[in-house]
Amino acid sequence: MAKGLVDFMEECPSRMDLYNILAPRSRTIYMNKHHEELGGSIESILRLAKNSIEQQRQPVEFLLPSSGKVPVSLKFPEYGLYSAVAAQPSNKVAIMLNLLRAIQEAVYSGQIKTIRDVYYSNVQLYGKQSKVDQWITTIARCFELNSKNPLNVIPAQKGLCFTTKEIRIVTRGRMDCIPAYSSTLIPHMEERSMCQVIMSKPMLRVIVVEKEAIYNKLINSGNGKLLQDSIIVTGKGYPDFLTRLFLNKLQCIPCIESWEIYTDADPHGMDIASKYMLNKIDHYKCGKLVHKGVFLSQLIAQRQRQIQFLPLTERDNSLAVRLLEKATDTDCKHSRLAIELQRQIFLQKKAEMDGLERSGYVGQ
Question: Could you give the residue ranges of the DSSP H alpha helices within the chain?
C-alpha cells in the first residue's frame, strides 16, 4: 500500500525533511563533452533533456562548469519553495537549449551564422543581443573550446577600416583584403588569423575614433597629410569583438609606429577607450593604443568656439568612479584615462568631440 501524507509526516521530524522527501527526483545533465565531436555532445545533451521532460516527465538539472569549485546549477522546471520566483532560471534554460539547437544545425550543415541572425530568430526569448554572445561564450567554455569559432556562430561585422595601404588577412588558408583608399567593414577573422600590410616603408599610423561620424569626416577631409600612411578604424561606439581582434592582430606588424585613440570627453568615451586598451582577454586587447583625447582641457581652451558642456548624471558619476579604479594601475600609459576621469568628476562636466576642430584632436 502506497504511503500517504500522514505516513511521511510521521517519518520526518522537521518541515525541511518533509519537503526533501516529497520533492521529485531530477535528472542531472552535465554540460560538457560527451563525445569527441561537438555535434555529438550537443545531440546527447538535447536528447537527455527531451527524454526526461517529455517522456518521463522528470525535472532536469543542468550543471555548468564554473571558475569556482561548485558548478552552476540550472533546474527546469523549477518547483518547491522558490518556484514563484523561478522565471529567470527557466528563461536561462530556454535560451541555452535554443542556442544548442541553433549551434547543432550550424555544425551539421557547415553554415556560418552570425550572433545577430540568431538574436533576430527569437528576439522575444533572448531580449538582448548581448545575451546571445554571453551564452555562446558560456557554451564554448562548457565544451572546453579554445575559441568560439568551432560553434559556427560568429559576431556580425560592425567596425569600419580605412587604410592607405592594402591589408591582407589570412584565415584557414582563405585570404581577405582590405583595399587601399576605401572604407570597408572589418572582415571576419579568428584568433589564429594573420595580418599583413603591403607597403615599402615602415611609417604607419593607427587612428581609432569612437564615432562613425568623426570617422567619415576624417576620411572625407581630403587632407593628404593626415591620411598619408594611416589606418583609421571605428567600432561605431562600443567596439565589437572583430574590431578589437583586428587591432590586436595589427600589433604584430612592426611597420606601425603610432597608435592613437580619440573618444568623447565623457565617462562613456573613457569606457570605450578602456574596452580597446584594458580588455581582460588578450585576443581583444590592444595594449599599444594611447588615449590622445578629446580632453575637457582641449575643449575649454577653444574659447573662440561655442562648446556645449553638459552636467554629469548620477549614472555618469558611477561609471566614472568604476573606471577610475580600473585605470589606476602601474602602467603610466593609462594614466591619461585616470587624469581625464578625475577632471570630469571634479568639474562635473562632459562634452562631445564634435565640438572641437578636427585639427585640435588629431595631431598632424
Answer: 5-11, 15-22, 38-50, 87-109, 115-121, 123-126, 129-142, 212-219, 224-227, 241-250, 267-277, 296-301, 314-327, 335-347, 358-361
User: For the chain, what is the radius of gyration of the CA atoms?
Assistant: 26
Coil/strand/helix, residue 117:
helix
Whether residue 262 contacts residue 363, with contact meaning beta carbons closer than 8 Å, is answered with: no
List, by residue number, the catalytic residues: 120
pLDDT single digits (tens) 62-107: 888 877 777 787 877 766 555 544 455 678 888 888 898 888 888 8
- Residue 213 to residues 139, 199, 269: CA-CA distances in angstroms? 36, 28, 15
Q: SS3 string of 34-86?
A: CCCCHHHHHHHHHHHHHHHHHHCCCCEEEEECCCCCCCEEEEECCCCCCHHHC
Which residue has cell 555618469? Answer: 316
- Is the C-alpha dihedral spanning 127, 133, 134, 138 positive or negative? positive
What's the pTM value of the predicted model, to 2 decimals?
A: 0.71
**pLDDT tens-digit series, residues 294-330:** 888 877 776 556 677 888 888 888 888 888 877 766 4
Distance of CA 295 to the CA centre of its chain: 26
Q: What is the dihedral of CA 270, 275, 278, 283, to 10 degrees?
A: -160
| Type and span of the H or E element at 334 | none
Are 251 and 286 in contact by the 8 Å Cβ rule? The answer is yes
Instruction: Give CA–CA dist 349/295, Å, rounded.
Output: 11
* Domain annotation for the chain: domains and CATH numbers: 5-154 (1.10.10), 204-361 (3.40.1360.10)
Q: Which amino acid is at 170?
A: V
* Phi, psi (degrees; rounded to nearest 5) at 252: -80, -5
